[in-house]
């Protein structure tokens, strides 16, 4: 059975109380290439609290979030403080309050014509030009930062608009996007993450999937419902398969967001937590028993007193992450065609070929067309060789981040400190370096942020 289970690529805002009072709006062209004369209001933010004469512009590229990012939750505030930088961000068009055609009531009828990679890049280019109109910043170096999809954009901006973006720090982004063209997959990576921690726990997690099925075949679904505190009882093999897929994709997400603070789960380091709980119990279902209560809010925020697997199975992933799904999936169906759902044979997870995203259902049959790898290379310079040849570029990937599997290469080692550099961070989850420091951060992550500060100083010619 194929089950659509949607991946999330968001930097998670941890602070519920963020001061957004100083965000502003400016008129932005709906189309930068003359196909529409309309404008819309695009949200942005300029934080000059840290700015010192001669400091760089640190530009945070907005991504798929449903509201403008809270920069005080991000390490960028720390980088600005360390380098006298002007901290700025724009909200991505079609997201949050930057909607060209008003609220998105229906993905089928909304006008998506101007949600293109070139329009998104031009928004950022014109925003930097707008900031530089202030003579204080005209000669400042501009460094673009982005994570995940935003890291893809940061890389694209450095590749295609290097005259505007003097440097880029991109984290947790994929090189290869189209699952159909590209066999590497993220479940191999998560399989390694768990096997590396404990072979015993990995074997037990593997066994959990067949154990789950046994509860159904031996008529014990009522017992299962009580044991896992499920909101509704699974009735048939399809229901069990949904539960099984939520568990597999949930483990993938727990690894992706294996942060030192509670994020998609309500515990720190949720992957270690699951492994620990699995080792401490002789119950063959232990991993799943540990998983359901900590993951409940990720399947249904509104139903925290039981595990609402039925909601999680049908509606993709709600909950933590703050991703605005309509526009995000439009990008996934057009120019960010990422797939991370394939599960090959010989891992601890049940093998499953990824289902295609339901682009036709969401946007209308034939309405969306994916860019191929070849077009990305030819028209947007998005190739390993061109990224390797960039100067003033660092890409970061972390041990727990499944997206590490989607950039399985290193850049050539060169003597120049300006050469593109890949930095692998032990103990880091998805985009962890972009998140503000927290007390349980591993040393390697603290070091990575310090390395980024050294690069910002070098690229900005600061001492
Ligand atoms: C900025 O750096 C100074 C000096 O290291 C430190 O005392 C201060 O707390 C920092 N402020 C912020 C907001 O990080
Ligand atoms: C979308 O819904 C809002 C109310 O929620 C309404 O004011 C608006 O007119 C609708 N827009 C379209 C294009 O249907
Ligand atoms: C230029 O930026 C500085 C620092 O943010 C600000 O104080 C000044 O008012 C700005 N000038 C103009 C003309 O906007
Ligand atoms: C399985 O049971 C669910 C109720 O839990 C029901 O909605 C669904 O139609 C059933 N599927 C099949 C294939 O019988
Ligand atoms: C997992 O167990 C180890 C060893 O008992 C312990 O040091 C660690 O803190 C535990 N981690 C979590 C996240 O529970
Ligand atoms: C996580 O939250 C669930 C639901 O509120 C709760 O049942 C569970 O005990 C919590 N787990 C931990 C480890 O705090
Ligand atoms: C997982 O379990 C299955 C049997 O259910 C076995 O065939 C497979 O080899 C196991 N995978 C790993 C990685 O141990
Ligand atoms: C996935 O597709 C490949 C190639 O068509 C096939 O060899 C493999 O058996 C399929 N795996 C599953 C689990 O369906
Ligand atoms: C990127 O591609 C464009 C053509 O689309 C080309 O003009 C430009 O020089 C390329 N930039 C780099 C850095 O290769
Ligand atoms: C990358 O740099 C090498 C060495 O300078 C050069 O030979 C090669 O043509 C460059 N590749 C691209 C795609 O620009
Ligand atoms: C690590 C790995 O399997 N890398 C492969 C991913 O897919 C690309 C494209 O097919 C191969 O070139 C890599 O070797």
UniProtKB/TrEMBL annotation:
Entry keyword set: Glycoprotein, Hydrolase, Protease, Signal
SUPFAM superfamilies: alpha/beta-Hydrolases (SSF53474)
One example of a Gene Ontology biological process annotation: monocarboxylic acid biosynthetic process
Extent of the signal sequence: 1-15
Superkingdom to which the source organism belongs: Eukaryota
Regions that span the bilayer: none
Gene3D superfamilies for the chain: alpha/beta hydrolase, Serine carboxypeptidase S28, SKS domain
Annotated GO MF terms: dipeptidyl-peptidase activity; serine-type exopeptidase activity
A Pfam family matched in the record: Peptidase_S28
Family to which the UniProt record says this protein belongs: Belongs to the peptidase S28 family.
Protein name: Uncharacterized protein
Organism for this UniProt entry: Penicillium daleae
């Amino acid at each position: 059975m194929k089950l659509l289970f949607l991946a999330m690529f968001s930097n998670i805002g941890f602070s519920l109380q963020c001061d957004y009072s100083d965000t502003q709006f400016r008129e932005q062209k709906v189309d930068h290439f003359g196909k529409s004369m309309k404008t819309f209001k695009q949200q942005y933010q300029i934080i000059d609290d840290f700015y010192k004469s001669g400091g760089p512009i640190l530009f945070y590229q907005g991504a798929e979030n449903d509201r403008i990012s809270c920069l005080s939750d991000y390490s960028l505030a720390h980088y600005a403080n360390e380098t006298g930088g002007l901290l700025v961000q724009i909200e991505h068009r079609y997201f949050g309050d930057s909607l060209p055609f008003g609220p998105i009531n229906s993905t089928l009828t909304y006008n998506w014509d101007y949600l293109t990679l070139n329009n998104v890049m031009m928004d950022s280019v014109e925003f930097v030009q707008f900031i530089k109109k202030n003579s204080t910043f005209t000669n400042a170096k501009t460094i673009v930062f982005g994570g995940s999809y935003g890291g893809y954009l940061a890389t694209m901006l450095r590749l295609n608009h290097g005259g505007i973006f003097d440097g880029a720090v991109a984290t947790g982004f994929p090189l290869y996007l189209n699952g159909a063209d590209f066999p590497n997959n993220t479940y191999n990576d998560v399989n390694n993450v768990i096997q590396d921690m404990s072979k015993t726990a990995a074997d037990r997690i593997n066994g959990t999937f067949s154990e789950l099925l046994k509860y159904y075949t031996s008529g014990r679904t009522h017992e299962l419902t009580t044991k896992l505190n499920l909101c509704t009882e699974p009735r048939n093999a399809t229901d069990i398969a949904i539960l099984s897929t939520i568990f597999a994709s949930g483990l993938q997400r727990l690894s992706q967001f294996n942060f030192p603070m509670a994020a998609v789960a309500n515990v720190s380091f949720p992957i270690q937590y699951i492994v620990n709980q699995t080792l401490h119990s002789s119950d063959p279902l232990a991993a799943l028993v540990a998983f359901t209560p900590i993951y409940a809010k990720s399947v249904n925020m509104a139903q925290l007193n039981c595990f609402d697997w039925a909601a999680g199975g049908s509606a993709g992933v709600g909950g933590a992450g703050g991703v605005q799904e309509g526009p995000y999936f439009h990008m996934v169906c057009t120019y960010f065609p990422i797939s991370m759902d394939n599960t090959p044979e010989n891992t601890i997870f049940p093998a499953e070929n990824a289902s295609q995203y339901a682009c036709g259902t969401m946007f209308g049959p034939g309405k969306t067309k994916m860019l191929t790898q070849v077009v990305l290379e030819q028209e947007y310079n998005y190739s390993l060789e061109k990224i390797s040849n960039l100067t003033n570029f660092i890409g970061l990937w972390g041990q727990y981040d499944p997206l590490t599997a989607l950039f399985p290469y290193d850049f050539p080692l060169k003597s120049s400190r300006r050469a593109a550099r890949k930095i692998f961070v032990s103990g880091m989850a998805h985009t962890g370096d972009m998140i503000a420091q927290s007390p349980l951060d591993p040393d390697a992550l603290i070091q990575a942020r310090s390395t980024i500060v050294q690069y910002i100083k070098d690229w900005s010619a600061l001492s």
